[in-house]
Specification:
The chain is α/β, with parallel strands linked by helices and about 325 residues long. It has helices at about 15-25, 35-50, 65-70, 90, 100-110, 125-140, 175-180, 190-195, 210-215, 230-240, 245-250, 255-265, 275-285, 290-300, 310-320; strands spanning about 10-15, 55-60, 120, 145, 160-165, 170. About 45% of the residues lie in helices and about 10% in strands. Strands 3-2-1-4-5-6 form a 6-stranded mixed sheet. The longest helix has 17 residues, at about 35-50.
């Protein structure tokens, strides 16, 4: 699928895509090492280039988490479960180690340097923040496709920005958000501030879900932006008309959604001047590299079976077919 004549800018949520490959791709090296994460990612990149014909590919990495968010909520992302291999029938004799997981990420960053692909990493800056900044401030008027299963990125969807979910293999747009959650993209974050996000350790208000919120606050389904203070004000008014447990819970904990907005909304507020400066510089400094021989040598050293385990020729053919104007 080609989103426009020149092809969209592909923004890859690196850790999100890598983690999925790590769990499900059954690829072993001749040295007996699990390489499903790194090689699976490369295979996915080849497929995305063929499927979406991007004009540019930007791989966005996690930078160790957001210090600013941890200052707001120390528990932020502290209790995430470790990623485990879920192919025990294949990997029953392969230890699922943090060392292997980290090695594959390091290997992937090295392999990507042989491709006409830009990698972005900013210390203490989350991939979501990088993607949000790029979408809103660097390429706002250009077509973009975010590759990620992360729900946090739904807030960025617009006529110029879509999201592709590797799990459902579907392109997600504004209509998807409205149909799936009952709220518009404009009000998606507002609703989530009351719901919270258990995966990131962000508590919400008891009794608040998308369905219940839309039922009590139908304004969330409109195209007009409704802020957290707006919902608090409406809650206060409607609680006087008819009392519900949800209203009571919200009014007793107004600081929770107000705090959550600072954690969930993707904007400059969680980026320092240094972060922004580095993002502007590295986004503009797009130095295309093509080193097919170097990639082949690196894969041989890792014990990757080619072309059965990974087809380098297909990868280069697909990427070169769409990224022609960059040198």
């Amino acid at each position: 699928m080609k989103l426009n004549e020149d092809g969209p800018i592909l923004l890859v949520d690196a850790y999100n895509v890598f983690a999925r490959s790590y769990c499900v791709v059954p690829l072993m090296s001749s040295h007996g090492h699990h390489l499903g994460g790194s090689i699976g990612f490369m295979k996915s990149l080849s497929m995305y280039a063929d499927k979406f014909s991007p004009s540019r590919i930007i791989v966005c990495w996690e930078g160790g988490g957001s210090a600013r968010r941890r200052q707001i909520l120390p528990e932020y992302k502290m209790n995430r479960k470790p990623i485990k291999l879920n192919r025990s029938d294949i990997y029953e004799d392969i230890p699922d180690t943090k060392q292997n997981f980290n090695y594959q990420i390091e290997l992937l960053t090295r392999l990507l340097r042989y491709l006409p692909v830009q990698q972005l990493y900013v210390d203490e800056c989350e991939a979501d923040d990088i993607i949000g900044y790029i979408c809103r401030y660097e390429f706002g008027d250009q077509d973009k496709l975010i590759i990620s299963m992360d729900q946090d990125l739904h807030q960025l969807l617009s006529d110029k920005t879509k999201q592709y979910s590797p799990a459902s293999k579907k392109i997600l747009d504004e209509k998807y958000v409205l149909d799936r959650y009952g709220v518009t993209v404009e009000n998606f974050v507002t609703a989530r501030c009351f719901i919270g996000d258990s995966s990131d350790g962000i508590p919400g208000i008891k009794g608040c879900g998308f369905k219940s919120l839309v039922n009590r606050f139908p304004e969330l389904s409109s195209d007009e932006f409704v802020s957290v203070p707006d919902i608090l004000s409406l809650c206060n008014i409607r609680n006087k008309e008819k009392t519900y447990a949800m209203f009571r819970n919200i009014l007793e904990n107004p600081e929770v959604p107000l705090r959550n907005w600072k954690l969930m909304y993707l904007d400059n507020s969680n980026l320092s001047a240094t972060h922004i400066s580095k993002l502007k510089y590295t986004t503009a400094d797009y130095d295309v590299k093509r080193d097919k021989i170097g990639l082949i040598r690196a894969l041989i050293k890792e014990g990757v079976d080619m072309p059965r385990g990974f087809d380098v020729d297909k990868l280069y053919m697909r990427i070169n077919a769409c990224i022609k104007k960059q040198g």
